[in-house]
Sequence to fold (333 residues):
Amino acid sequence: MKRVSLTQYLVEEQRLNNSIPAELRLLIEVVARACKTISHAVGKGALGEVLGTAGSENIQGEVQKKLDILSNEILLEANEWGGHLAAMASEEMESIHPIPNRYPKGEYMLLFDPLDGSSNIDVNVSIGTIFSVLKAPEGMAEPTEQDFMQAGNKQVAAGYAVYGPQTVLVLTTGNGVNCFTLDREMGSWVLTQQNMQIPVDTKEYAINASNARHWLPPVTRYVNELQAGVTGSRGKDFNMRWIASMVADVHRILNRGGVFMYPADAREPDKPGKLRLMYEANPMSFIVEQAGGASTDGKQRMLDIQPEKLHQRVPVFLGSKNEVELVTRYHQE
Ligand code: P6P
Fold:
């Protein structure tokens, strides 16, 4: 494949589909550059004195790793001066982050999980960054959390980076899903996969099976059938993967199919699942749908959920269309 850079791809996409206005192109390139910086810091590991905990907790009550905080700062600093954003929101910050008055403000709002999979940082397992782009409401003066409360179907772009054996950036602006691989010698993102498509059927599922005794009946029924394999109603064997980094599990599914589940859990009815809607489930669901997959919270299409709180959690069932439809149907029966 002729080497096409991220910049060339975005310029040509704008020319072909008129879907990437200049400010959105700048936003994507700035985020991509920030992911390069995060990849560099992550890659140093112990040599960079960035491993281990920072001795603080985030809004989720989770212990923050040094790299969580560093990644958040990299994304904030990279994006606040460009004039393309009105505000940002992050898993690592309790409230939204308006662009400081000393900088011009733009028409987009950026949400991100700066470093997803933190439990994997210190043991050298793939982690990543997830981001989502919304438009600021018309005539918005001072941005508030309420301005971010837009359903996932309002996203204008979404993407994730995986810091693994390769560093990759997967991106959609609503015209399919493309993957760019970081050329570390040149420091540039190179287009390596175009119009990624998730197979509608699969033989692979991803769930943290240690929570099985807390699952609700539809999930138990569905997973039991997968585990019964060729001896059960599905008539074929399934394989299981759980990396505990959503970006890595989703990237595998984008490449070879699969169904990813983080269900609600009977222990905490007011905490419906672990993953967050605004900056994990929604961007990943936009990408998955653009690649021919499906994503629901067990009851409805993820991208149609009307958010109420910035850090709200949601059950997640996403991936190969036929499997997501089946497990969702079990919730409705
Ligand atoms: P568990 C990582 O902390 C994360 O938010 C997702 O990336 C991942 O899918 C999930 O949590 C892992 O959760 O309960 O298996 O550790």
Summary: The chain has two domains: 6-193, 204-332.
